[in-house]
Amino acid sequence: MTDYIPVDLRRLVTSRANRCCEYCRLHEADAFLPYEIDHIIPIKHRGETREDNLCLSCFDCNRYKGSDIGSIDIETHQFAHLFNARTMIWSEHFRLNVNVIEPLTPEGRVTVFLLRLNSEARLIRREQLIEMNRYPCLD
Ligand SMILES: [Zn+2]
Questions:
Q1: Among 13, 48, 83, 100, which residue has the fewest nearby CB atoms (within 10 Å)?
Q2: Which residues have a Cβ under 8 Å from the Cβ of 100 and sit 6 or more positions away?
Q3: b/e per residue 81-102 (b: at least 16 CB within 10 A)
Q4: What pTM did the predictor assign?
């Protein structure tokens, strides 16, 4: 969820992520809507507006994430937190299989599920960008 973020902090988060969505790895230049600064732990859950609780998110990821912090993992049946770009490494929780983001952990699975990372529209968009060598934008 985006709330008021001071300009300097917004710049830091955007440049730190190289304008790449830290969840789905789509570059802002390839997105239809401007990127948002996401509170990893939302304000609603007492998350703070500090650089270690912020990440860059595309509109779709942020919209589907909303104020969620996690969900029940379908395999372990336990609560798992959403991927946290400040404390977790993307490649330890996900791997790309062509245009599909495959989860590797409970955190990966709840993130793919809640943020709808593999919706049909997103898979099509990624496929187009892969053909143009424009996806993913972070390794
Ligand atoms: Zn995204």
A1: 48
A2: 118, 123
A3: bbbbbeebebeebbebeebebe
A4: 0.95
How far does the centroid of ligand 1 lie from the alpha carbon of residue 78, in Å?
25
* In the chain, where the domains are located: 7-131
Q: Tell me the pLDDT of the chain (139 aa) as tens digits.
A: 446 899 999 999 999 999 999 999 999 999 999 999 999 999 999 999 999 999 999 999 999 999 999 999 999 999 999 999 999 999 999 999 999 999 999 999 999 999 999 999 999 999 999 999 999 996 5
- Helix spans in 19-132 (H): 59-65, 90-93, 106-114, 120-131
